[in-house]
């Protein structure tokens, strides 16, 4: 009996020590910075998109980068849930790739609630954030002075950006109303007001 008690105590001490070690381990985000022109910004965005496994949320002011558009389409084809919010200017902008991604089945929306929807953000798999001044455009890559941050392994920060993304989506409208080739149909997975907005409107 005494041997069993000692053995049990040893096991408990071991697991208590293991739990303490695990609890003390902090997740450190991985942050990479890029600059343009010709500083690898587009390549970094495309590489991050190619690594997406489940979800990819996008906000963009201007969108004329064909490599990024193709990477988003490829992600959608391999089963990643891709959704894009663009500034209202993209509805009539020459050279915009909004038509390209929308026609390939990516739910695409325009945000007209603001004078300019100037965000440049991607949220990948709920843990990676791409942001900075860098527009997803040819000019930003080839001619402009821009910066780009790729922040990996930071779910809490990604959660904050996701809440902001959903807030903008609730104020947006489909780029092609009533038409969708997406496997989920014409309705976004996140379409509609946020839960707290719904509750406040009810009260």
Structural class: alpha+beta
Unreliable residue runs: 191-203
CATH topology: Endonuclease, Chain A
* SSE order: HEHEHEHEEEHEHEH
- Could you give the order of strands across the largest sheet? 1-7-6-5-2-3-4-8
Number of domains: 1
Total DSSP E strands: 8
Strand residue content: 15-25%
CATH architecture: 2-Layer Sandwich
Helix content: 25-40%
Task: Characterize the structure shown.
- This protein has 203 residues and is an alpha+beta fold.
- It has a single domain, classed as Endonuclease, Chain A (2-Layer Sandwich), CATH 3.30.870.10.
- It is 39% helix and 21% strand.
- It is built from 7 helices and 8 strands.
- The chain has helices at 2-24, 41-50, 66-77, 98-103, 138-142, 155-170, 195-202; strands at residues 30-36, 55-60, 81-87, 108-111, 121-124, 128-132, 146-152, 172-174.
- An 8-stranded mixed sheet has the order 1-7-6-5-2-3-4-8, sandwiched between helices.
- Helix 2 runs parallel beside helix 3 (66-77).
- The radius of gyration is 22 Å and the shape is globular.
- It starts with a helix and ends with a helix.
What are the main properties of this structure?
about 200 residues; alpha+beta; Endonuclease, Chain A; 8-stranded mixed beta sheet; 7 helices; about 40% helix; globular
């Amino acid at each position: 009996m005494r041997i069993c008690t000692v053995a049990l105590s040893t096991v408990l001490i071991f697991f208590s020590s293991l739990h303490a070690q695990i609890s003390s381990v902090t997740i450190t985000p991985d942050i990479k910075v890029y600059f343009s022109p010709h500083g690898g910004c587009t390549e970094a965005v495309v590489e991050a998109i190619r690594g997406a496994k489940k979800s990819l949320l996008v906000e963009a002011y201007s969108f004329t980068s064909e490599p990024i558009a193709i990477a988003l389409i490829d992600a959608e084809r391999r089963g990643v849930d891709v959704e894009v919010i663009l500034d209202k200017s993209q509805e009539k902008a020459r050279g915009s790739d909004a038509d390209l991604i929308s026609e390939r089945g990516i739910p695409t929306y325009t945000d007209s609630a603001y004078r300019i929807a100037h965000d440049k953000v991607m949220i990948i798999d709920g843990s990676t954030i791409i942001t900075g001044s860098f527009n997803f455009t040819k000019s930003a890559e080839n001619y402009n002075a821009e910066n780009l941050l790729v922040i990996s392994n930071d779910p809490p920060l990604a959660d904050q950006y996701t809440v902001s993304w959903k807030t903008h989506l609730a104020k947006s409208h489909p780029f092609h109303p009533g038409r969708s080739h997406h496997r989920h149909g014409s309705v976004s997975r996140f379409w509609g007001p946020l839960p707290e907005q719904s509750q406040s409107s009810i009260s």
